[in-house]
Specification:
- May be a proton symporter involved in the uptake of osmolytes such as proline and glycine betaine.
- One of its GO terms (molecular function) is symporter activity.
- InterPro entries: MFS_dom, MFS_sugar_transport-like, MFS_trans_sf, Sugar_transporter_CS.
- One of its GO terms (cellular component) is plasma membrane.
- By secondary structure, the protein is mainly α.
- It has two domains: about 200 residues, MFS general substrate transporter like domains (Growth Hormone, Chain: A); about 230 residues, Up-down Bundle (Growth Hormone, Chain: A).
- The protein has 23 helices and no strands.
- Helix 7 packs antiparallel against helix 16.
- The protein is globular and about 70 Å long.
Length: about 450
């Protein structure tokens, strides 16, 4: 058996890198990639191109779930976890070494290589979460799967805090010119340290008892994805929507609030900032201006970090509660809380920044409570010999319909409402309704016999 400490660290390290990578890439997509990889494009087209490459990972993730799920269910969890972490680490590290389109002869090749590396990241992430969840839960003592399942989930707040503290430090220590010249590469290169440590621990793992039993009983399926879709499509569909509200809440609380919170609160403030940057606003930009909270970016990042501390705390709190009350009942209660939060969204994220810190704390508390049990409930929906594939496909399909469009939809709703955010709350509440229905029609999985549950 794997030791408790080894299980905790080996499952935590991958998701920490996953979310660390997400934030450094997202920040670079806004701050530097438009100028470095699309220097000939207009400002808006360069930004859109940069975001399009960012979105490539969401296309790759379902493919990665099938690919790594196949190997995880057919050949074992250990080797697959090592492969996913190595793929993710190499892709992230190579982005930090990539020549930019501003270098002679790299105008076309640099963006293409960036797309390829981002696709590789997405493939790895498609298999990483499910493998980490199985590592934690298949090695958990009886009656503690939900508690052990919170360990890989804790990687999300840790990765967020690491990435944002790094960028806050860069913002204070480097000039904009230095950051553009070389500073942006450092966060990508530093990820290699986490990857090396993670690989060292994962190489020392032994296969879980659940998968050993699959091998012993000769229950390995020939094509896990085909078997999952043929015989277990209902739990795949249920798992996809069980995760939906979690994804929508997460991306609204991070990407959207950062955009909305740092947008100038008035046209005059926006014009002053544009004049200072040497890019005066056009008449059309003035006419179509949509106000935000007007909080300086550095200050809002600190507000987000405070909220994410609550995210981490309540991720850990959720495990014992999901064991006590059951995953389904507990998550139904939290989902009702997300619905209410969406309905009251405009009271915390309306004009003025005063109540925003309360909104961030409440939102991230709900995020921890809903995210924590997912590493238990999604794998528990599937038998051992298709568990890697089934949970990975459900998790990553939900990322396509929940995570990928969340920020764009929220921004479009904010603009459609002329600067009010009440429609963003309606969107969040609607996602909560769909998740509640999925939980309502799904059986309780708390007492699933993990080791003897083989299709």
């Amino acid at each position: 058996m794997n030791s408790k400490g080894k299980v905790i660290f080996a499952s935590l390290i991958g998701t920490t890198i996953e979310f660390y990578d997400f934030y450094i890439y997202a920040t670079a997509s806004v701050l530097v990639f438009p100028r470095l990889f699309f220097p000939q494009a207009t400002e808006i087209n360069a930004l859109l191109s940069s975001f399009a490459i960012f979105g490539v990972a969401f296309i790759a993730r379902p493919i990665g779930s099938v690919l790594f799920g196949h190997f995880g269910d057919k050949f074992g969890r250990k080797g697959t976890l090592v492969a996913s972490l190595l793929t993710m680490g190499l892709a992230t590290f190579l982005i930090g070494l990539l020549p930019t389109a501003t270098v002679a002869g790299w105008g076309v090749l640099a963006p293409l290589l960036l797309v390829l590396l981002r696709f590789a990241q997405g493939l790895a992430l498609g298999g990483e979460w499910s493998g980490a969840a199985l590592l934690a839960t298949e090695n958990a003592p009886k009656g503690k799967r939900a508690i052990y399942g919170t360990f890989p989930q804790l990687g999300a707040p840790i990765g967020f805090i690491l990435a944002n503290l790094l960028f806050i430090w860069f913002n204070a220590a480097l000039s904009p010119e230095e950051f553009i010249a070389w500073g942006w590469r450092v966060p990508f290169l530093l990820s290699a340290v986490l990857v090396i440590v993670g690989l060292y621990v994962r190489l020392k793992l032994v296969e879980s008892v659940s998968f050993q039993k699959v091998l012993k009983e000769d229950k390995v399926v020939k094509v896990p994805f085909a078997a999952t879709i043929k015989s277990h499509w209902r739990p795949v569909l249920a798992g996809t929507f069980i995760m939906l509200a979690t994804y929508v809440l997460f991306y609204i609380m991070t990407s959207f609030t950062l955009t909305y919170g740092t947008k100038p609160a008035s046209v005059a403030a926006a014009q002053a900032a544009a004049e200072k940057a040497g890019k005066p606003m056009s008449a059309a930009e003035v006419a179509n201006f949509v106000p935000g909270l007007g909080v300086p970016r550095g200050d809002f990042l600190w507000m987000l970090i405070l909220g994410v501390v609550f995210f981490g705390i309540f991720t850990l709190v959720s495990g014992p509660l999901a064991e006590k009350w059951g995953r389904r009942k507990f998550l139904m209660g939290v989902t009702v809380g997300i619905f209410v939060f969406g309905a009251l969204w405009f009271t915390m994220f309306g004009p003025g920044p005063g109540a925003a810190i309360v909104g961030l704390i409440v939102g991230f508390t709900l995020m921890g409570l809903t995210f924590g049990p997912m590493a238990a409930i999604l794998p528990e929906l599937f038998p051992s010999n298709v568990r890697y594939t089934g949970s990975a496909v459900a998790y990553n399909l939900s990322s396509v319909i929940g995570a990928a469009p969340a920020s764009f939809i929220a921004i479009a709703l904010w603009q459609a409402a002329g600067g009010s955010t009440w429609l963003v709350g309606v969107y969040m509440a609607a996602a909560a309704v769909l998740t509640f229905i999925a939980l309502w029609i799904t059986r309780e999985t708390k007492d699933t016999d993990y080791e003897n549950n083989v299709a």
